């Protein structure tokens, strides 16, 4: 067969081949012999490689004659037939193979030659085995697959003993306590925990304080002999549990009271937070009034003059004053009982500016602010009532002007309120 770099037949011939069969290029017997017009023969692949440098022209390596490899070279069938009839020996003759025959039969022989080394399919430590010895080797290979007779798990033969000694859950064993045989390894612990009459077990009254241990088949005698002791333990345990229950009931009652007080505190904080979210704390208020049929008196949301500050609200009466058949809207400032009254000074003194905002884009002109002087308003009493606390303007604005399209659109009026110190 051809070896690396040799394209001809580099095989073992029974006798020395005739020189006419030897390729002048690779120097072994020609494979697929071809002949040129100058009469020389070569392996087909050898001369093709030589011609590749000047294809299709080629110089004969023997006599330097130029020829066209496509037109002036042809297969030498007669020589090919003679070469294939040469007698050869198997490549493995040194390993003991006795085969010899014609070259044309060598490849088929090598496909089944028993003296060629092959790999063991089980991946054992012997990497190569003669093909003729493979069956016998695999019958005894330490990596051949075997099945555990107890658990039916499959594994390499070399691991079977270790598996059965250490791992197999179904290997039958004997109990070291009572001597019972045939217990699977996986069930030994269950046997000791539940069934073995000679296993050491604690007294059933362990949780009540009994520390005795004995063999399972003898523990019932212990229970009979120590019945009074066990009853005393039960009584003590019951008393301790009753005491703990009373302590827990007291703690639960205290926690319930604490929870209730915390609930009240939380409710107060929620009310305070809601109050803060609902009120302004900068002494300013933008008041949107939605007019309702038949209603002439409107009260604003409460607001604070600061934080801390006084709590106020505004009151608008659309027909609060009549003078010479002219109706006027009246505006009043009312002091309320506030959250911060204990932190601020009384009486209350301030100037309140009230201004009607124009909503007509063509007449974008607000009414000049109307000042309401609040002087010497006392603090609210415990019931939230302030005597002599009303401050305002009876003639805040003519009613018809207030309800005109300059200030009233879709039955809505906007007012701006600002509190300033006197």
TrEMBL record:
ZnF locations on chain (TRAF-type): 109-156, 163-219
Organism: Dreissena polymorpha
Major localization class: cytoplasm
Keywords from the named record: Cytoplasm, Metal-binding, Repeat, Zinc, Zinc-finger
Domain TRAF-type, first and last residues per copy: 109-156, 163-219
Zinc among keywords: yes
Cellular component annotations (GO), alphabetically ordered: cytoplasm
Name used for this protein in its record: Uncharacterized protein
One GO biological process term: regulation of apoptotic process
Pfam families registered for this protein in UniProt: TRAF-mep_MATH, zf-C3HC4, zf-TRAF
Annotated InterPro entries: TNF_rcpt-assoc_TRAF_met, TRAF-like, TRAF1-6_MATH_dom, Znf_C3HC4_RING-type, Znf_RING, Znf_RING/FYVE/PHD, Znf_RING_CS, Znf_TRAF
Domain RING-type per the UniProt entry, residue ranges: 23-64
GO MF entries: zinc ion binding
